[in-house]
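Exercise 7. Predict the joint structure of the components listed below.
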Amino acid sequence: MLIETPDAGLFDELFDADNRVRPHCRMLENWLLESDENLIAEKRREADVLFQRLGITFNVYGEDQGADRLIPFDLIPRVISASDWHKLQAGLRQRVTALNRFLHDIYHNYEIVKAGVISAEQVFANSQYQPGMQNLKLPRNLYSHIAGIDLIRNNDGDFYVLEDNLRCPSGVSYMLENRRMMMRLFPELFAHSPVAPVEHYPNLLGETLRAASLQANPTVVVLTPGRFNSAYFEHAFLARQMGVELVEGADLFVHQNKVYMKTTIGPQQVDVIYRRVDDDFLDPLAGNPSSMLGVPGLYAAYRTGNVVLANAMGTGIADDKSIYPYVPDMIRFYLGEEPILKNVPTWQCRKKKDLHYVLDHLPELVVKETQGAGGYGMLIGPKASKKELETFRGLLKAHPEDYIAQPTLSLSTCPTFVDEGVAPRHLDLRPFVLSGKKIQMVPGGLTRVALKKGSLVVNSSQGGGTKDTWVLEDDLC
Amino acid sequence: MRLHIRHETTYTYESPVRNSIQYIRLTPRNTPQQRIFEWHLDIPGETSDMIDGYGNPVTVMTLKKAFPSITLVAEGIVDLTGKPLTRDDSPFPPEVFLCDTPLTEMDDDLKAFAEQYSPNKRSLVRLMKHLREHIAFTPGVTNVTHTAAEAFKLGAGVCQDHTHIFIACCRHIGVPARYVSGYIHSVSDDHVATHAWAEVWLGSNWQTFDVVNTLNVAESHLKLAVGLDYLDVAPVRGMRNGGGNEHMETRAWVTEAAQAQ
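Solution:
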C-alpha cells in the first residue's frame, strides 16, 4: 500500500523532514507497505461492526437528541517514542501537581494572588470560581483527581499544552477500546513491537478514587446524568470495568449530611462519587434549583467532609482559558521549577495591548472563547472567510474579556486511512493523569485525528476520529 | 438597640409530604455589629449543621415521615451595636462579588441605566434613590425567579428585586456588591420585618445600601446571610416528594426588647 508523504514544513509522526521514516516507526511502516489494501478495507469494516455491537457511540451536540453515531476509528496507530513519553510524563506530573496546588491555594489563602502573580479579579470575578468551595478541606488537598491534558506537537517537534481539562474529561473509554480493537484485528503487530499496555487504566482509576477518601475501605460510585448524555457509554463502561455501581441522582439520597445509595438490602453509605455531572447540577439546593440530575443535600454532605467528589467542585477555575496563560507561572510559584511542557503563547484580549495586536493580526490567529469547549465559538484565522473575520472583530470589540487568541500552530500529522488511500492528517493527544496517593497515568492517551484534509479541528463533535496510541517501552527496535 | 425576633414560616401541603430536605439559613452570626444573646430554631425533623462557602451557618433538615404541614420558627434576642462594617469579613477577596448570576442578569436598558453612575459613594447613593423612585414597592407582582432585568422592566417589585437590580448595576460598573438577607426593625408595624438589602465594597470597607428604605446605615438591620444573589441566602431552600401544591405563610415580629443593664 502507498503512503502519501507529509506536507513540507509540518512535523509528521512517521516521517522526518527528509521523508525518511523515523527509526522508532520502522516496524509500522513495514506493516503498512506489506499490507494488502483489500485486507485493510475488510478490517476497517470489521472494526465498524464491532464498535457498533459494543455500543460505543457518540451523541453529537447540535444534532437530534439520541442521534448516536460512531466516532470514526482509524486503524493506523500513532507511535510515541519511549524518550518522548519519558519527558511528557514528567511534564504532565509537574503540571497537574501545580494545578492542584493552585486550586487548593485559591480556595484557601490565595497566596498566588497576594504575591501578585495573578490578579484577584481574574481569579475571583471569574464565573468558574465557586464561592461554595472556599475553606473546604479536601483529603490530600486534591481537586482534580482525573485530568485530561490536551497536547499538540508543533512543527518544531515540541509538545505544547493546548488546554487542561480538570472538570469531567472524557474519552478514556475510546483509548481503551481502540487498543482492544487493534489487538483483536492485528494481534501479530503486538507480537513484534514493545507497545506499553494501557489496559490497567480502570485499575489505576479505581485506586485513585479509593485514595480520594481517607476511609479505610471506601464505597465508590459513578454518578452519570443518564443515558441521554453523550458520554453515557463511558460512564457505564468505567463503572463496569472498576466493578462499582453506576448511579443516577435518584439512586442516592442524603440524610444527616451523609450520602446513601438505595440498594435491595437497604441504604449503603457512599464515600466517593466519581461524578460526571456538572457542578451546577450536583445539588438543586445549592446550584441550579431546577436540576433533576443531582442529589438534594449533596453539597451539605460534601461541605461537612462526609463524601468526596471526584473531581472536586470548582476545578473549572483552573482550566479556564483566561487562567491558562498563568500555568507556567503557577509551576514556578508552587514548585520552584521551570515548566517542562510548553504553553502556547496567548494574547489575553482583556488586556488593551493584547486586543490591539489581535485585531491587527486576526487572519493569522486562532481566537477562542474563554468559556468555550468542544471547538465551538472558535475562529481559525487562516481558514476563516472575510465575513467570519468581521463577525469575530465585532465580538472581540464588544466583549474582549471573553476571548483569548493564539498563533495558529501547525498540529503534527500522521498517516491515516482516508478515501484516497493513506494520507497525512492532523492530530492531538489527550493523556489522562490520575492524582491519588501519587500521580499515575497509563502510557499514551487518546489520540484524536482531524479526518478532513488540512483540518485542524480534532473534536469528535466536529467530525474528528481517533487512533490507537502506542508508547514504545524502548526505542531500540 | 436590643431586639427580640420571632419568625414563623408555615408550609401547608395539599397532601402529606414524604421525604423532604431543606437548607435553612435562619441563624445570624455573632459579629461586632450584632451580638447574639439567644437564638433558637424550632424545627421538625432531624437536623445537622454546616457552614457554607460564604461563612453563613446553614441548618440542614430532613423529614422522613409524612407531614401535612411544616412550621419553622426562629426566635432570639440580639444587640445591634451600630458599629460600622469591618474592613473585610469575607473568606475571599471582594472581587467574588463582581460576578453575575442568572438572577442579576442585565439587559441593554438596565446596563444603560447603570452606566449613568460612577463607582463612588455619592453616585451610588443617587443610584439607590433613583432606583427606589423607579421601582414601586409592590408585593405580588414578582416572585423569586424574576431577574434584575425583568424587575427593572416591570418597574415594580419587593426588596429582593430592588436589591438584585442595585447589585447588578454596581457589578456592571465594577463595584463588588453582595446580597444580604435578614430582619429589619421599624417603628411602624405595617412594614415587613424580613428584609433584603445590599452591601457594597468601596475600596476599603463594606457599606450598607438598603434600597427599599433608601438607607445608607444598618442600625436597625439584623443580618442572616450574604451571597451573590437571593438563591445563595434564601431562608429556606428545599426539595420534597409528594405534597402537591404548597401554600407558604411567613410572619416575623421584630420588636425592641427591654435592656437589662
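Discussion. Residues 116 and 127 of chain B are 9 Å apart (CA to CA).
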